[in-house]
């Protein structure tokens, strides 16, 4: 009885258009966490990250496939009004297109201004965007 090797079976599945255990960009959910770490703002102590006033979802390319959750950690510099003046990748999720989508989205966000002793300040915050295939996304 002939054996079907794994590579041949995978090629056959891909030729039929199925993608086993993979989610396309349209099937991704994105969770967001904004936080500060000690040393992010050395001239003042920020107890918690400012709230997000406006955000846009990352525009992931339609041909992006993801098998497992992937997180991108960004560092965003905010001006006195809470606008993002600079953003950079602190820890890549390993997929350039998702890193770029996260950067582009967060660059458009606005936060509540950071006010310390009655004075609006520039501040640095960290933003973790976690891309999760819908099949693995938690309910709710």
Please tell me about this protein's structure.
The protein has helices at residues 6-15, 96-106; strands at 23-24, 28-35, 52-54, 65-66, 70-78, 84-91, 110-111, 114-116, 119-121, 123-133. It is an alpha+beta fold and 140 residues long. The protein has a four-stranded antiparallel β-sheet, covered by helices on one side. A hairpin with a 2-residue loop joins strand 8 and strand 9 (119-121). The protein starts with 5 loop residues before the first helix and ends in a 7-residue tail after the last strand.
- Write down how many β-strands occur, each being a DSSP E stretch of 2 or more residues: 10
Radius of gyration: 20 Å
Amount of helix: 10-25%
Helix and strand element order: HEEEEEEHEEEE
Class per helix and strand makeup:
alpha+beta
* Uncertain stretches of 5 or more adjacent residues: 1-22
Please state the overall shape, judged from the principal axes of the Cα atoms.
elongated
Number of helices: 2
Q: Termini distance?
A: 48 Å
**Average pLDDT:** 82
Order of adjacent strands in the largest pleated sheet: 2-10-5-6
Largest sheet: 4 strands, antiparallel
SS strand fraction? 35-45%
What is this structure, in a nutshell?
The protein has 140 residues and is α+β, with helices and mostly antiparallel strands. It has helices at residues 6-15, 96-106; strands at 23-24, 28-35, 52-54, 65-66, 70-78, 84-91, 110-111, 114-116, 119-121, 123-133. The protein is elongated and about 45 Å long.
């Amino acid at each position: 009885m002939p054996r079907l090797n794994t590579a041949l079976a995978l090629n056959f599945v891909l030729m039929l258009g199925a993608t086993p255990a993979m989610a396309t960009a349209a099937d991704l959910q994105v969770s967001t966490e904004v936080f500060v770490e000690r040393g992010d703002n050395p001239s003042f102590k920020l107890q918690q990250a400012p709230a997000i006033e406006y955000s846009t979802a990352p525009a992931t390319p339609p041909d992006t496939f993801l098998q497992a959750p992937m997180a991108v950690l960004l560092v965003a510099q905010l001006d006195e009004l809470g606008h993002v003046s600079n953003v950079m990748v602190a820890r890549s999720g390993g997929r350039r297109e998702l890193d770029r989508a996260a950067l582009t989205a967060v660059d458009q966000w606005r936060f509540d201004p950071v006010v310390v002793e009655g004075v609006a300040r520039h501040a640095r915050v960290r933003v973790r965007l976690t891309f999760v295939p819908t099949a693995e996304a938690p309910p709710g």
